[in-house]
Design a protein that fits this description.
The protein is an alpha/beta fold. The chain is 28% helix and 30% strand. β7, α5 and β8 form a beta-alpha-beta unit. The structure holds adenosine-5'-triphosphate and magnesium ion. Adenosine-5'-triphosphate (ATP) binds next to β2 and α1.
Length: 227
């Protein structure tokens, strides 16, 4: 019998403290097949992982290794079958597939999420102005998502995750659709956040620039192994 998963918001964890995310013994199985022949497939088999403030940590693994499943559990979007997650309540999550509203413009998205994060008007305008500039998509501020390219959608997806300056950023393949210039901008932006004390967990199915990461976990056979 497995233990009940526990997801605890720990408001005492944040910039200046040591640990911003700690996961222990994360277990997840998916059930597949027709209802009469359903079988369980374990994807995560006891993942232990932790992040402290001011570090960029990579989570690497082949397609289907369970990276997105793990990140969903870490941010509370999916329930684990067992294990515990403790994290700061000041976090941002950038899902692998952008979750955007086709009929809304970029600026409307940022306003909507800014309100959800409880940002003031002045915080919202200074943060969005900076992100438009850093990710170079100010010219699309008043464009509806349905008219955006895939790369610009990814920029908006990333901006939404970062706009409230969270202590912990969980990014699922954030630069998969970026061109070279945007890829460089991404690293400038995330390195600045890291140097200011934020902590970043970045999923990638391959690591091109290993030196950009402080630490790397390989997700292999359902477990996170630190390199
Ligand atoms: N909702 C679901 N129901 C059943 N199986 C699922 C579900 N979501 C994911 N899986 C399976 O779990 C495994 C891990 O999927 P996951 O998306 O976490 O992998 P990933 O490492 O993020 O892969 P990728 O590099 O392709 O993004 C895969 O075999 C996938 O088919
Ligand atoms: Mg994935």
């Amino acid at each position: 019998m497995m233990a009940t998963p526990e997801s605890v918001n720990a408001p005492n964890l944040g910039v200046g403290d040591q640990i911003v995310l700690e996961a222990a013994g994360i277990w997840k199985e998916y059930r597949r097949g027709l209802p009469t022949r359903r079988r369980s497939f374990p994807v995560l088999k006891g993942v232990d992982l932790s992040l402290t403030s001011g570090e960029i940590v990579g989570l690497v693994g082949e397609n289907g290794a369970g990276k997105s499943t793990l990140m969903k559990i870490l941010v509370g979007a999916l329930q684990a079958d067992a294990g515990t997650v403790q994290r700061t309540d000041r976090f941002g999550y950038c899902p692998q597939v952008p979750v955007l509203y086709e009929r809304l413009r970029c600026d409307e998205h940022l306003e909507l999420f800014g309100a959800a994060y409880g940002m003031s008007r002045s915080e919202l305008s200074s943060s969005t102005e900076k992100l438009y500039e850093d990710l170079d998509f100010a010219r699309f501020a008043q464009t509806r998502v349905e008219e955006l390219s895939g790369g610009t959608r990814s920029k908006l997806n990333l901006a939404i995750a970062m706009m409230h300056d969270p202590a912990l950023l969980c990014l699922d393949e954030p630069y998969a659709g970026f061109d070279w210039d945007t890829y460089q901008r991404f690293w400038d932006l995330t390195s600045r956040r890291r140097n200011a004390g934020a902590s970043l967990l970045i999923i990638s199915h391959f690591i091109a620039d290993e030196e950009r990461f402080d630490r790397i976990y390989d997700l292999v056979d359902g477990r996170a192994v630190q390199r």
